[in-house]
Amino acid sequence: MKINESIQCSIKNCVHHAQDENYCTLNKIKVGTHESNPTTKECTDCDSFVIK
Ligand code: SF4
């Protein structure tokens, strides 16, 4: 799998994670929110996440 050095990520439970290194392998990701008024980083989500 080719890592995307522009997208660091530590979510090894995601099918797109490089596993050996803490990077995503997608060319791009979508970041979103589950809140109506996001105010902290905990309000943000990687919408490209897919459970492994
Ligand atoms: S899709 Fe999102 S959660 Fe999955 S490895 Fe890439 S950045 Fe991480």
TrEMBL record:
Boundaries of every DUF1540 domain copy = 7-49
Q: What Pfam families does the annotation carry?
A: DUF1540
Q: Which domain of life is it from?
A: Bacteria
Q: What is this protein called?
A: DUF1540 domain-containing protein
Please give the organism. Answer: Lactonifactor longoviformis DSM 17459
